[in-house]
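Q: Convert this sequence to structure tokens.
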Amino acid sequence: MDRPATAAFLGMSLDGFIAGPHDELDWLERGGGPPEDHGFTPFFASVDQLLVGRRTWEVVQRFPTWPYAAKAVAVLTRRPGEARHGERLLAGSPGQVLEALGRDGARRVYVDGGAVVSQFLAAGLLDELTISILPVVLGAGIPLFQGAGPERWLSLQGHQAWPSGLVQLRYGRRNA
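A:
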């Protein structure tokens, strides 16, 4: 069995934060100007499984509607919790969790949340990383990259800029 492919798609402030200091995400929508398509819809359609961190899961649970209704969702956590939308709570290393998801039929996994993305990157198990950098300095918040990990070089797959000032960078795993 081949392991599932993994990909992350994140919005980030210029100073490296993916959420405000109290997990706020509203700044992602406050850029003003006409709506722009940054490619999230086709990306989301390309995955069959989400793997989110506990903190991300807790934030998303507070949304008015569950945004992942059409996808299988797993939560990487060491603490017990109550699934409200059919999610699975999993514990283990990135390799163990990815192996379990693959056994259950996952082919392409959307890895989300700063801690989970950092763990998968450190383990060499993140195949694609798309970062949309918004033209805002938050000053404080939840950083994208958390914890120390080994040096990882990535390969630039594409880049694009929009009139709003958002710049998107797409990277792939660089094989030694």
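The helical segments are 40-45, 54-61, 94-103, 114-122.
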